[in-house]
Write a structure and sequence with these properties.
By secondary structure, the chain is an alpha+beta fold. The chain is built from 3 helices and 2 strands. The chain has a two-stranded antiparallel ribbon.
């Protein structure tokens, strides 16, 4: 993963994350399924947005805790998106 937009104090104005996986890695299709599910289900997208805001306030610059905090929601959505 490549990240831009973070300084010594954490997030600057905006950040960019580029995720790269080896060809054929299951994370590629899961990422696309997750994205597409949220695009097709606005209520789930709002829930995800609210969760991300809550986690950002709770964990501040602790990127790992923030990401871990999203895990259960992402796994839940992927159960539906994989069908």
């Amino acid at each position: 993963m490549f990240v831009k937009g973070y300084g010594p104090a954490g997030l600057e104005k905006e950040s960019f994350h580029i995720h790269m996986y080896p060809e054929g890695d299951a994370k590629i299709s899961d990422s696309i399924r997750f994205r597409d599910y949220l695009r097709g289900h606005p209520e789930a997208a709002r829930e995800y947005g609210a969760l991300k805001e809550e986690l950002a306030l709770k964990y501040g610059n602790d990127r790992e805790a923030y990401t871990e905090g999203k895990g259960e929601f992402v796994r839940y959505i992927l159960k539906f998106a994989r069908c």
